[in-house]
Amino acid sequence: MPYTVEHKAETRTRIVTSARRLFNRRGFSEVSIDEIMASAGLTRGGFYNHFKTKDELYAEAISLTLECEKAGPEGSKIDFTLPPERLAQIIISAYLSDQHFKDVEDSCPLIALPSDTSRGGPPVRQAYQQVLEAMIGLFQASQTGEADARQKAIAIATMCIGGMVLARAVDDVQLSEEIRDVARGTALETGGWSETQVVAAAE
Fold first, then answer.
1. Short-list 143, 154, 134, 150, CA closest to 80
2. How far apart are CA 14 and CA 177, in angstroms?
3. CATH topology for 67-202?
4. Predicted TM-score of the model (pTM)
5. Rounded to whole angstroms, what are the CA distances from 135 to 52, 144, 147?
6. pLDDT digits (tens, 9 = 90+) for 92-132
């Protein structure tokens, strides 16, 4: 008896979710199709019913970020209907938070996957760029009326992504926290905000 469209969609989602977590934790090259399928509770044979290649799955796993619910400070959910300026401040705080730092498997792929992406094919690089452009667009919308709005948005995104990459790359807890604090402060300053405004925006 053939599977329903709903069953196929659910199975595909399980595969992508499994892949995203494994890729985030270990990287593209270190994760096999067998491991991805086993983590999803499936067998390798079913993989090719949904994807032609591992690169195709990788690209979709990156793109999944655009559909995920984003967790805000202290586990709260971010309201994406907020005015752009308030939303940007909350995003910066959430991105460089302890929660995001510790949650490797479900973290933003812009942090965990850049080195793998640079070696990937066009679909992988295009998916990564799509997520990056979405982040830049969000920050750019918060800079209405600024002549250099896009430049500021790129700088803020760079502080968020680069700050978290470096914070995770060191073993010294104090240095890791310092890196994130400086990145957050610089990102906020670039946007024309202060830590006090972020607290107010989150309330």
1. 134
2. 34
3. Tetracycline Repressor; domain 2 (1.10.357)
4. 0.80
5. 29, 16, 19
6. 999 999 999 998 887 787 876 666 677 777 888 888 888 89
